[in-house]
Amino acid sequence: MHKIAIVCLSVFAACSICVASPNASLGPQILMAALDCMKAHPISISDILAIKNTLKIPDTKNANCFLACVLKRIGLLNDEGKFDTEKVYASVPLVFSNKDDDLAHKSKRVVDACTSVNTDSVSDGNKGCERARLAFNCLVQNAPKFGLSFKL
Question: How do the domains of the chain map onto residue ranges?
Fold first, then answer.
């Protein structure tokens, strides 16, 4: 079952790279991080499909910690489990897609709307599992408010 989940995750991540913005240089890094994080925080095929199809993180410890692991490995969460806004500012245009020329400005506004997750109370401290979920949900919820779409 674990091997099937890794294969599905690999296909999902590869497809995500294909549909991401033209400057999808973060894609291979996400794929490698995801494959590595699957070992420490295995998630099921249904969890992977739920994330892909609904942009919702299943409410399980492994799903939250898997997301935190990936975000830490690509530098969007720091070692304290906090949303690293400077790195997010640099990376968000690789995840959002939009036809407007002001993508960077809109992306920054989405990130600004989500920086409050760093002050939200979480019970897992610097692990970042809960904060990763908060950050992901915030980005997904706020992107449309600024005319952006969120792709996986």
Answer: 2-150
Contact 92, 149 (CB under 8 A): no
Summarize pLDDT for 11-69 with one digit per residue, the tens.
Answer: 444 334 333 344 455 677 778 888 899 899 999 888 888 887 888 898 899 999 999 99
Residue 18, CA atoms < 13 Å, CB-side half-sphere: 6
Q: Which residues pair with 97 in a beta bridge?
A: 149
H or E element at residue 110: helix 103-114
**Backbone angles phi and psi of 102, in degrees to 5:** -95, 35
Nearest to 137 by CA among 45, 44, 71, 91: 71
Q: Supply 110's token pair.
A: 């989405």
For 75, the token pair is 């530098």
pLDDT for res 134? 94
* 44-55 pLDDT per residue, tens: 888 888 887 888
Q: How far is it, in rounded angstroms, from Cα 114 to Cα 47?
A: 24
User: What's the CATH class of domain 2-150?
Assistant: mainly alpha
Distance of alpha carbon 104 from alpha carbon 115, whole angstroms: 16
